[in-house]
Amino acid sequence: MAQRIDVKDLDIYYGDFHAVADVSMTIDPRSVTAFIGPSGCGKSTFLRTLNRMHEVIPGARVEGTVAMEGVDLYGDDIDPVAVRRQVGMVFQRPNPFPTMSIQENVLAGVKLVNKRISKADAADLVEQSLVGANLWNEVKDRLDKPGAGLSGGQQQRLCIARAIAVKPDVLLMDEPCSALDPISTLAIEDLIAELKQSYTIVIVTHNMQQAARVSDRTAFFNIAGTGKPGRLIEMGDTGTMFSSPTEKATEDYISGRFG
Ligand SMILES: Nc1ncnc2c1ncn2[C@@H]1O[C@H](COP(=O)(O)OP(=O)(O)OP(=O)(O)O)[C@@H](O)[C@H]1O
């Protein structure tokens, strides 16, 4: 299930704008990697290149390689839709489909791939995915009610259930807790700790404490000024990054001196 990702010499563009320069990193399987850094340094942009969502924007492109278990996701024979199935994504704001029921939401991605799933298999998958997202006990008696009727934290866990229902290898999370209250945030953080047993997880967060709590490794990105590309400054074991980073910019950012 979980997969290792090797990024090599990646440059990311929006048309002529060079948004992120020269990133090389390894993301370990069955672990949580956090991306931190000031606004505009390209964390979300880089995250979206890991499942080829970046190129959905007109004019957006990359140079370099993103390899999953040695296979370049940008290779000529690779189907981007298959990549997005293998590498799921959870966004900042919970985005369940408002007119769909809870169970239809869980199955939304699966039905795109497998229209002929039997009722029994679908019911099993709904239960499995909701259990996996720590939501089953709260919703099992109202699976046919609208997903939009859940609390924000529950909606985010529903989105995680929808993402894991297609059985991805990797889960990308772009500030998944920024719209949530502290209790829901802790529920998602606990869930991330459980999910890493099975998945490779990458999370963008502005919250230093969250990066320190949930991640095994942390990557710090920075930007030298407006119009300049963001760069990966330093990446390492989260404990070390927060206690004794190598770069002064990392220390300044972590200690709240800028950003
Ligand atoms: N769709 C887009 N078209 C053109 N430029 C974009 C687009 N999305 C982002 N950018 C630019 O790319 C750069 C990196 O943005 P990005 O959102 O990746 O940074 P970030 O580190 O995730 O920021 P934040 O922490 O504020 O979310 C910024 O200069 C931004 O303006």
From TrEMBL:
* GO CC annotations, alphabetized: membrane
> What name has this protein been given in UniProt?
Phosphate transport system ATP-binding protein
What is the species listed in this Swiss-Prot or TrEMBL entry?
Sediminihabitans luteus
- Which keywords fit this entry according to its UniProt record? ATP-binding, Nucleotide-binding, Translocase, Transport
Q: Which Gene3D superfamilies match?
A: P-loop containing nucleotide triphosphate hydrolases
Q: Which GO terms describe its molecular function?
A: ATP binding; ATP hydrolysis activity; phosphate transmembrane transporter activity
Q: Which SUPFAM superfamilies match?
A: P-loop containing nucleoside triphosphate hydrolases
NCBIfam families linked to this entry: 3a0107s01c2
- Domain ABC transporter residue range list: 5-248
Which InterPro entries does the record cross-reference, listed alphabetically?
A: AAA+_ATPase, ABC_transporter-like_ATP-bd, ABC_transporter-like_CS, P-loop_NTPase, PstB-like
Under the heading CDD domains, the entry gives: ABC_PstB_phosphate_transporter
Record's keyword annotation contains Disulfide bond: no
Which residue positions does the secretion signal occupy?
none
* GO BP term, example: phosphate ion transmembrane transport
